[in-house]
Amino acid sequence: MSYQKIILMYHSVGSEAHPAVTGSFPVPLARFIHQLDRASEAGWAFGALSRLHEPVESDTLYITGDDGTADWAANVLPWCEERGIPTHTGLITGPWRAEPIWPVAHRLQILLALPGRKLAEPRLDPEQAAYVDRVYAYEKDERRRRLKGACNVILTDEEARTLLGPPDAEELSHLRARFAAPDVYRGFRHAEFGTHTLSHNAFSGDPMDYVLSEIVPCRRDLEAAGLRDSGFFTLPMRPRYPVTVEQLVPPLREHGFVGVLDGQGAWDGQSFIVPRIDAKNVEEFLQLPAWQG
Q1: What is the pTM of this model?
Q2: Same domain for 199 and 145?
Q3: Cα–Cα distance between 108 and 105 in angstroms, integer?
Q4: Number of domains in the chain
Q5: Is residue 251 located within the same domain as residue 152?
Q6: How many angstroms separate the CA atoms of 31 and 282, rounded?
Q7: CA atoms of 38 and 288, how far apart (whole Å)
Q8: Predicted pLDDT at 175
């Protein structure tokens, strides 16, 4: 008998005790618990992502979280650990450095959430603007959409950092509170960890250069922190126009990776590129009772 393997994707998960990080689009911890409890009642089991390619004895869910934010580490990991539910966290390791590398995407989330901030307008040609509008369609405000899209998938990392300028004291305080330190992750029995790049920079065209500059250093940082790499790389965002994630598959295989988490939908059980179901679509996709919070 063939069983379903569905991978769920989370980012920020907030609670009253540990609020969501600034500027994120969080799922309440209560909703996360609702989703897992209702799924368990419906007969779903929970599996470790590192064993994704192994046979299962029932329909199985794999819980994944991106970035390694403090709210995820404080809310989700202890709750799942207490219940023996495996988790997989794709970690950005640049913030761990002695001279931190603060991801542009996370800087933008903070800056767009802080009152009174005036950010420069990016210049996009019609083709670039159309690409941004498609990728960031969930952002209904055009200025926010174009700014996020330009910095994340059009401009180079250096150009985006120049556009934003250096972080000031207020922004730095939010950045330092945003990412959990590596020692927070040690000691969990049911938590797994994988690479999510050094700086959360988007893939921009040279596959091997990206693997060697962003992914391999991230894996080394994990290992130096005493964390075992799962072998799954989590793509940080859509590649910079016009390159594609498929170009990364050969060098990732060459460096021992077994899969890349990217895209939305149900996995076919075989592909190296593993899509996921977004947290806000879990109830609908799994046909669970709706969240009433």
Answers
A1: 0.94
A2: no
A3: 5
A4: 2
A5: no
A6: 10
A7: 6
A8: 98
